[in-house]
Amino acid sequence: MAVYLYATAAITSATADQAEPFIVFHDLKDAFSQVLRSNPEALGVGEYHPTESAPAADPAIKFFADPAVLNLLKQHRYSDLVIETWTTDGKCHEEKVIMNKLDRPDNIIAKIDRLIRNSKNTAINPHIMKISCSDFNLILIGPEIVDYPGLLSLMREKMMQNAQGLLAKKSKFVLYGGALTNDLFPNPGDRNFTYGEQLAQATINRYVEVDLLVPEFIQNDEGIKKQSWYKTYLKSAPKNKVIMFNPKPNQFIIILPRTT
Questions:
Q1: How is the chain split into domains, by residue range?
Q2: Half-sphere exposure of 227 (CA within 13 A, CB side)
Q3: Taking the model in full, what pTM does it have?
């Protein structure tokens, strides 16, 4: 059984009102071609997760799991994909309580399975996290109380364990999860939840953060609405194309086409 973690995204950028430059692409494959021009050793791809009550738009994972995108990554010699999901035998009571507390669409497991399947078909090795009952026990701090910061820290720890193993093999790899754990420039209070800075150091600045944002999912996020790139997107960018901002070195924000 595979489980996906849903966490609040933390997209950081300047908040001034100046227009931000952007590039328009036909599809996500073309956008990733631009990202890969610097030949990063590790890519941290983060999505703004949909919730159960989110608009019925296509989620980012559907775009990323496109065989055209995965084939492009394989052509650039990315051999492994670490997915922020975990397997379980379903016997941990604590895990069942935590799962009941996570606000996630019912169909997300099928979309994760599609990503795993398409990765294998592209000869990219998918990896998922192994979490024990004792791990879950530390996260459940009361009969029905989940330590969400602790859960995010656990996800970061497990993702880094996979990444460190791939670094030791000198593999080029991609991590796919939430648009918080991948942060290269995290807010000070979020550093315990992110791996971007550590991977940038480990790869000598050959780590790149890519945030995949579905416009329908972010339109009511007060933090995102303050960002200058989002104001530029609303004012000037076509909504039926893939839009890319590059607000900081090795940080790309990709807004996907509207599907509703």
A1: 2-255
A2: 20
A3: 0.89
